[in-house]
Structures are given as C-alpha cells and as structure tokens.
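Interim report to the steering committee. The following record documents the input for 1-deoxy-D-xylulose-5-phosphate synthase (627 residues).
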Amino acid sequence: MSTNSYPLLQTVNSPADLRRFTRPQLKTLAAELRSYVLDSVSRTGGHLSSNLGTVELTVALHAVFNTPEDRLVWDVGHQTYPHKILTGRRDRMPSLRQLGGLSGFPLRSESEYDTFGTAHSSTSISAALGMALAAKRKGEKRRAVAIIGDGAMTAGMAFEALNNAGVADANLLVILNDNDMSISPPVGALNRYLAQLMSGQFYAKARDMGKSVLKQVPPLLELAKRLEQSAKGMVVPATLFENFGFNYIGPIDGHDLDSLIPTLENIKGLEGPQFLHVVTKKGQGYKLAEADPVTYHGPGKFDPEVGIVKPATPPKTTFTQVFGRWLCDMAEHDPRLVGITPAMREGSGMVEFEQRFPQRYYDVGIAEQHAVTFAAGMACEGVKPVVAIYSTFLQRGYDQLIHDVALQNLPVVFALDRAGLVGADGATHAGAYDIPFVRCIPNMSIACPADERECRQLLSTAFAQNHPVAVRYPRGSGAGVEPLASLEGLPFGKGEIRRESGQVASAGPRIAILAFGTLLYPALEAAQALDATVVNMRWAKPLDVELLLEVAARHDALVTLEEGAIMGGAGSAVLEALQAARVQRPVLQLGLPDQFIEHGDPARLLALQGLDAAGIEQSVRARFLAG
C-alpha cells in the first residue's frame, strides 16, 4: 500500500509531528487518515465502522495532549486503528491481526502509546482513574483520559468507576464517544437518556436563540461554535454525570476539529474530574459503513469501491447459525424458552429469533453480570432462559454463574460461542478457560459437541435438564455435518466410540484418543496413521466414567484432546476419574498450554499448538511409540 496518496500522513511518525501542524493541516490529515484506515482494513479485514468514527477525535487528542506522557485509555479498543497509525505503526498496518503482526486492540507490549491493554468493554474509566491517582501520588503532572463508547457505558463497571472518580479528586478526563451504537444497536435507559438530552426542545431553542444573537455581532461570529458548546453547559440542567461529581461538558460534534481542539485545550487546564460528551457517527466518511455500521463492524477483505459482497456460493453453516436456528425451533416447541444476550445479537446468531419472538428476546446491553443473574431470576419463575454469550465474556459473569445460578441449581442454558481459539481477535477473545472454570462448579454441566449436528442435539439435551448446562462451540464452521431437523437430543453425560483400533497386542501399545469437541476430526485423521481408537467424549462434565474405564481396560495408553486450557480441563477430569477408580494408565494431555496465544489464522494457531492431525500424530508417536 503506497503512502504517496497520503502526503501529509506519511510525515507523521509520532504524535509530536502532528502537533506542529496548523488547524487546516490537521483537517487534511484527518481526511488522509480516514482514507488510509479504509484502505488498510479493506486489505486485511478488521474493525472498520468504529475506527472511521474516531478519526477526528484521535487527531485532536494527540494534538492537544502530550502522549504518551499523558495517558490515553481506549475502552474496548475496536476504535484504535487511527491511534496506531499516528503512533509509529502506520507501515505495519498490512500485518493487522495476522500472526506476528499488529494486534487489533491496544497492547502494552506493542507500543508505549498503548498505555492499557483492552478488548473487553467498560474498563477504561477504572484504569485511567488508577493512572491519574498514581500520578498524583508520585507528584507527576500528567493527564489520564478514558475514551468510552455509549454502549460500554451500560456496564456496571463503568458506573462503579464513575462513582469512585467523582470523589477521588483526580485529574481525570472521561470522554463519552456517543455514536448511538455498540456492536448491536444500543438498548436501555441510559441510551434513551442521552438521546433525549441531545434532542430536547429546551436545548434546541436555547441554541437557536444563541445563534440569532451572535449573528447580530459580527466580531463574535467566529466564536459561535465555542459559545454554542458553552451554552449547552448552561442550559442543560444537572446531568447524571454531574451528579457523580464530574464537570460535564457537551455534547459537541466529534467530527469537528474546530470544536474538539479548543474544547480539549480548555479542559486540559481544568482541575478535577471532567466529562466530555462527544457525538460521532460510526462509519463516518464511508457511505456504505454509515448506512450499515453493523455489517461493516468487523468485515473481512473487501473492495471499498464495491463494498461487502455476498459470496456466490453460500459459505458452510457456522455453529452460530446452528444455534440461531435451534433457538427458533425450540422456541416454537416450548413456550417457556426465552433468549438473552449481552449486546451480541448478530454475533450470537439471534437476529431471526428477535424478529420472530420479540417478546421473548432480551438484549440487556453490555452487562454480562446482569445477564446471568437476570436469567437466574427468570428461571426462578419457571421460565427457561437460554443465555447466548461468548466464552470469553462469560468470564465477566463468573461470580453470578456460581452464586446466582449454580448455587440455586437453576435450569439456565449457556450457549458458549467462540470456545477455543478465535483467530484474529487474539488472546483477549479466546475461549480457552470455560471447561476448567465451569466443571469445577457444583450442579454445572458442560457439553462439547464435535460438529454442527451434535451442537444442535446437545443444545436440546441441555435444554431438557433441570439444572444449569453450558454448551461450548467454536467460531465459524466445523466438519460440515448437516444438523438434523428434529429437536431430539443425545444421552446426557454419554460419549461414544467413533473408531476402534484393529491393532493386536503384539504390535505395540494400544492407544485410545479421547476427544472433547471439534478436535474429534483431526483425531480421527491421526488415528488412521496410528491405528488408534478414537472416543467422542461429548461431555467434559459429567464425564462418561463408565465408557472411560471400559476403554482404559482395553488400551495401554490414553490421549486426551481438547481446544481449551490443559490445566484443569477435560484431560484433568480424565486423570481424576482414573485416580478415583485406582486405574493406572499413562495419559498424554493435548490442549492449549499455560500461556496466552496471540492473534492469527485459527488453523495456523492450532497447528502451532500441535492440535492438527499431524501434530497429534507426532505427539502420540513421541510419547508412546518412540524407539
């Protein structure tokens, strides 16, 4: 990607460079930056709408604040591509979200300008407050700025931080980037409040009156926008944020550098907690993304001139789609079913469910803790909740999972999407820990379907239980086994033998591979070369101990296989069961190691962990067949 089309942008190697620019030059820089973001993402894939919406805000922040000495904390981090480009990483954008390349989120180890690693929402105010108070404690004069979206403001953690910050006497600036969007359209009372605040007739009349007065005084005409911003502060009564102890300023146009820069310069000189309300538009400057910010939230590669085009041949059915269809079918069958999502309608495959069953669909906003306890409350009243949530996001509701659901043994189904490695989103989004953290909780069960058909069947099995059950499945498609139309489930807590070894005892040790989840298929491929038995275990909890002991009795060595953390995972469950039964067999545990795995192509990442067919075969030979 040539930088010749971006003559001003190519001169910016750090924010210090753009601080020498005039205001007209900064406007030109913003236009080039927006074009560069669009060009880059169209070539690599990544988050687009959110980044197009924060171009001017990013330019203004780096122009006014002395970064990295002043700390910028970007909530979630979907919107930090302009920030990365302006902080010395422009030429690395072609490697975005690829193995060994730039992270799609802020990453402390990547740049000193990434002051705090993010990817989950609603953490920025807490982190920036910590930085501000640490600077105060050390006697250092620096600013801490949290940039948070209106969607992320729906999470309880953001309000816990606001509550603390308002009385902490810290030089903290919170910028609310209000684009009326998170990933799915925003929901809840806070969103309605912000919309009313900005569209209120009182403010609109006051604004128009102010403009008419200013027009009578030509020397003040150039100050109109600044005075308009000030007038907003006067005419808007005590806001929610002022009641938290913040000095509220706004709302102002987040795409107008003539408003942003003077406002930020004024705020920079103020003491105490400040709150700036900025209004932006997702997809700004690219009409297709403006019109459909959800589709352009995280696209793959595409031609910017044409936009995203549906493939000529339909892609393979994904696990997410299997869940979405099952949810609709089960809702037709059982009127007790309700669907709950923490702001991930599209990502969790619930669009059709919302359309067909709007009265049984609940989007609670970015509030995972609330989602889990909300489901528990419904289950107490005889409703059958299905919580569609990414594995990595259920981590945020872990206390609620234990105390509010499992302790009361409530029949809630957790559909855990994105289990295992997720590829380009990296360690922050990997569903590596759900087997260990679910199976240690009393009353909880966790199913590991091997393919699309089993996913539908095990969801039905989970729904039929009278206790909490999680069903984990990966992002994307699997082996391509077409689901059955029926809602019939599989036996609870039971696995099956998929391949029986034909090996005789004299030929060497008989090996059985116990597969949990979609790694069944590479296990079957490796077993052909090894002549090993393959068991589709299906359940990490309850473990099919009867089948396990029967297989152990007929084999000399066992291999456990899971796309999840080895420590405390399904392989550990096998070892515990063997120990309890006083059965001694050598066991090789294959899974994800005790380390965070970076972003990259999922198949490549699995291969690097030895979890493809070749890697499984190699590990088994090295352990049991060497020499």
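The chain has three domains: 9-291, 319-472, 496-625. The committee is asked to note this result when reviewing the revised timeline.
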